[in-house]
Structures are given as C-alpha cells and as structure tokens.
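RETRY 2/3 - previous attempt timed out on the joint model. Re-submitting the same 324-residue input unchanged.
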Amino acid sequence: MTSTDRTSPEEVLHDVGLRSTAPRRTVLEVVADHPHVTAAGLAELLGTAGHRMSRQSLYNVLEDLTRTGLLRSIQPTGSAPRYETAVAGDHHHLVCRGCGTVVDVPCAVGTSPCLTPAQAPGFPVLDRAEVTWWGLCTDCSAPSGTSPATAPHPASDSWRTP
Amino acid sequence: MTSTDRTSPEEVLHDVGLRSTAPRRTVLEVVADHPHVTAAGLAELLGTAGHRMSRQSLYNVLEDLTRTGLLRSIQPTGSAPRYETAVAGDHHHLVCRGCGTVVDVPCAVGTSPCLTPAQAPGFPVLDRAEVTWWGLCTDCSAPSGTSPATAPHPASDSWRTP
DNA sequence: ACCTTCTTTTGACAGAGTCCAAAGAAGGCG
DNA sequence: CGCCTTCTTTGGACTCTGTCAAAAGAAGGT
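RETRY 2/3 succeeded.
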C-alpha cells in the first residue's frame, strides 16, 4: 500500500522490459508490504484490497516478476512457494517449525563462506546459495501457554507441521 | 534393493517406535537406493518393482518415516518434496537449474559457521540449517551440444525451469 | 489515431496431497 | 496358541495449487 519507494513501480517494471500494468504494480506493492507471502495468500490480500485478478494472471505476474528478478521465490520444505521483493543485499531465511513464520536474516558470514561448498563434483557453475534455518519462534517455543506449536500462527496460511 | 545395511530395516523401525511393516521396509530400502526421489517418483519405482501400495499409504509412510527422523525431506524451489535417508553427518544440496538433479555435498566449513546466523531476532530455538546451492551441472553447462538446459535430464521428474 | 505486440481473462484441465471410514495386519497378553 | 487391542493400510471422493490454450483486451511506438 505504501508507495514511498525510491523508484516507482512503473519505473522498475520498465527497467526490466515489462509493461507497466495495474496487476503488476499492485502485486509489486502488496508483496513489498507482505514479505514471504504465498500465491494463495497474495490472492486473498488482493481480493480484500479490491484488486480483483484472475488466478492465471496472478501466476503470470508472479512468473514474470520472478523471471526478471524483481521478485524472488523461496520454498521452505512443506510450504507453498513464498515471494519477496528481491532487495539488494543477500539475506537468508529463518523458518519456524511451529507456525511457519519466515523471517529475514542477513547473510551469516559476509559473503564468501556461505557461497562456496567444500567441493562441487560435477557442477562447474554455481551462482547462488540459499540458506534456511529451522527453529521455533518466541511464541511457539513458549512454555505451552500462549500459542504453542499445536496452534498455528494466524499469519501463516495452510501450514503443515513436519 | 541392497539389504547390506549396518542395521536392518526392521530394527531401525522398531527403534523409533514404529511397527515393522512391508510398506515401510520397502520405502526405506527404495529411498536408500534412490536419494532425492519425489513421492511421485517413489510411487513409480515401487510400482515397477512390484510393490503395489495405495497413494495414501505412501504418504502415510513418508510422513511417519520423516516424523521419526528416518527420512528427511527437502524441497528445492520449484520442485516437489524430495526424500533421502537421514544418514549421519550433515550434508547439504546442490541443485542444477537445468535438469533439476540434486547432489549431496558435505557441509562447507565443518559445522559452526553454517549453523549460526549472524542474528536470530525472535527465534530462541534454532536446530537445523539447510543449505542449497544453485548452479548448472556438467551436462547442462556444456557448450550447447550434449544436453543443454533446454532438455531436462531424464533423471528429473517434472521439473519447472525457473 | 492506428496497429502491432504484450497482457489479461476465461474455463477446462492435470497433478499433488488430504480426509474419512472400513478392512486388514502386528504384536501383547492371558 | 489364540484372542483382542491398537496401529496400518486401503479405497474413493475431494480440495487445492498450478497449468494449458485460445480469445478478448490494454500499452505504447510510429
């Protein structure tokens, strides 16, 4: 919703060679305000915000924005793909086993160590490392009083406890 | 198919409190012989091997074995969940963008660096780090002669190029 | 303004995974 | 050894997520 970006959605879209259309601008804004949202969650957000859009369009837009690098998708095991704006600066993710909440974390040790495996047999090209930490958030690690692992956090849509 | 394990499937199942049944033993063996297999691929392997099993049973078994720690599931973005036997020794994964092949890689820098994020705001409990490197395997990075990125590797079932 | 090209819509479709109730094995106990 | 309880498996219908293909509709350059 907030449109206080350094570069406007139109500009950003144009820069990557995509036409500036309402669905794309809207998706960009909503994802920026709701990082780690799933396609389904996004559809709901768009719906309640009055921006009706066909399912196919949503998937088209997500695919276009992801392919051109404006969005990035992650898929923690057991969850549907989640989207986030591809901001500069590498960061990784922290996922709660209990409620599925995803939190950004700056890359652990600068850049190098995380990006180079000890050995890469048969893989001449390596361009990206994706790190996911698993644990329990404050709520879910609480002494079973507030909202333990058995009660999924409302912020997480359709989460399957592994 | 090879049953030359240090501990027999029956024993292993019993140790985690699961009854030793044919479907479970079979799944354990097949996954051991085919690391990074998807549920669908597993169903096919089981079928051709003559071990018929309902889809529901397969999912039940996978869920049970995963929950008890005998199997581990990973889900590279864009792929269905893949299963592997939870062998001792941390290792991570190397995924080819072209054909989807997944390869095991020993943990990059021993244990510590990869397992501790710079900061974990709101996450008191952190138990596991999952690292996935993205790149191109030898075949897919070849000078467009043998089997480039446009021709998915036969070993990969239903792969969507991102 | 016009025309080409790119986007969106619509509706049908495919695949993966889940829910539920009933039938069937495992294994403990007498 | 045989019964009984409990855990597993089966089968079928169903939901959800994502895809395909063709036609209608906007963007934007000339």
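Residues 1 and 93 of chain B are 24 Å apart (CA to CA). Closing ticket.
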